[in-house]
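Human: Cast an eye over this sequence-structure pair and say how the chain folds.
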Amino acid sequence: MTAAAAPFLYLLPLAAAPIVFHLLMRRRQKQMVFSTLMFFHRTDPKLQSRRKLREWLLLAARMLLIALTLLALARLTVKMPSGGLALGGNQAVVVLIDNSGSMTAPAVGSARTKLQAAIDSARTLVGSLDAKALAGAVMLVDDPAIGVGETMSADKKATADAIDRIRPTESTGDGVAAMARAMDLFERFSPSGGAIHVFTDLQEAEWMHRRIDPTCVRPGVDIVFHRVITKALDSANVSVCDIQAPRRRILPGQPYLVNVVMRNQGPGRAAVRLNSEDDQRHVGAQTVEIEPAQEKTLSVLVRPEAAGYHWVKVWVEGDSFQADNHAALAYFCQEKAPVLLVGGREEFGVLPVALSPHGDGRYTSLVPAYCRLDELQARADKAKPILIVLTWRDAQGLAGGGLDAWLRQYVEAGGNLLLTPSTQAKPIGGSAPAWLGGQPAAAQEFPTSVPLQVLDKSSPFWSDLRGPDGRVRLGTVYARRLQALRLDSNAERKPLLGLGYAKVVLAAGMQGKGTVFLSGTAFDRNWNSLPQMKPFVALAQIIALGGGPPAQSDAVLVAGTAARLRSTSQDPVRILSLVGDPMDWAGPAGRTPVFARSGAFTVQAGVDRSCLSVRSSDQEGSSGFIQGGAVPAMGSTPHRVSTLADAESFQADLALARAGVELYLPLLLMALMTLAVEGWLGLPRRREGDAASGKVVPRFSADQAAQEGGRRP
């Protein structure tokens, strides 16, 4: 409460003037001789007590009249309660602004986004603070690209400028973590407390599932949530749910498919366009229709032209919400890779030509080389091959030897191994190592060619041969000679091609990080028709490049999370951006920054390098919003929830809280009412006889008669 004319408050003791006058002007009693007291004894005693009560009320009314008049002249102003704003005295305010993806949606009743409404209101709040007040800003999603320092200071302009720099992210925030950061500011800068004002749409994904730790709540800190009302989606919303790198080695000049998974999270049918762009400025666009609550996967073609790190980004256009429409993928393209074929060139049919038409990796980046079995380990240790091709004849002589153990280690470390019959049809003797997962039967010839069929059509092995309708575009393969495979059920080798499951001629399965391919037919036209078919080249490339993750694994993160890196190096981890927000960060592996938006990055830890990909959070377009006056994440911590209609209304509320309410008119009206009561109490009362009782009420009481009796004759 403040007083515009404070000197009148010093005159408040004058309200006691009626008491002083009453004491000073009181009549003194005198003893008088009367002939008889007969008339006074008949006086009603109640009249005396009523008269005294009326005199005391009249005295109180006169005192109140003086006090109210002085208070009205002092022009008092009282500050209205402002939800913990503390707009007076020692102020400390932290504004916590929700910059998650859901805040990009339009606010109800406004053409602006919810984030713009939140920023304008937060800026108004900071601007309404006193000159010495402390203010700070915290973002729901930590955004390294913005650089808003989480601190508190009396420089309101710096705080307001930091708030203005906040821009929307594609992330789902962590309300509990952000509240803990806000509380930490009070611990460091204002231990006596203050107020936290949260401007948010109260999305369930951010404020529903986790609970704040009561031990981190600072005493004396008020928490106020300003809910920005969200307009319900009434049309389709397609989000990017996943982006998948090719599950094979990536070499220059090779075509690869990047799969993009999309889901329609809106109530209506979606007709959208998926756009793509890569670091080589190749652009593309595909249209797709998706029913509500349905998923669809589209493939984006990439063809890196040189070794090194590359990226591709995708985004959806044509739906009602944009913050969950983006994804990026980083991948590493290796140099030309050697393929070691153990034996003579004539034993492998046309397979070497399918791997490299000119033998130098000119078009496929695969360079075939030949060696004897006893040279295999030395050649592979000198230049690690991407694929080793071994005939069944040579494999049957490996069991239990040192080369057997080395070959298994090579595969489990990420190498690929292909076992195939020799085109020379040399006799088979003995058994191949059991860890290969299968053995070939004796060769079988057919008088007429028999058709082979794709057995496991859903296998990722066929991804590059699968058409838009999901069918494998291999064509009909005819076999004249084959060695059916006897697969070990414990080795998890999946049948891919054969004369039904009884006679499998091609199977594959993971062995550690690498892949073992088992073939019961040679890649020669005397064995089957594959060498004469267009898909054969693609099939040979799949075998050479497939199996396990790429040489440097791609991690796909959801925006709003930090990378969990495990580095054995003592050197700091360095993260560089390829596309997306600019980033050049270095620090401990356990303290990597949050990735607020989609992008592609490289990670270097010592001599190790890897890729990191980030997509937008699909929760931002699907999660509901908390209603009512309680935020579940706050648990038992006291807090208040108010509705933020718009920045203008919020500014008016702040102005009212800042200016307060003048009490001049209310006090003046009360003084006038008191004056009327005083006048009514001061009117003389007329005493008349009571006919019903027969009593006569004299005009004087006994005391008055005793005082006045001496004046009467």
Remarks:
- DSSP finds 15 helices and 32 strands in the chain.
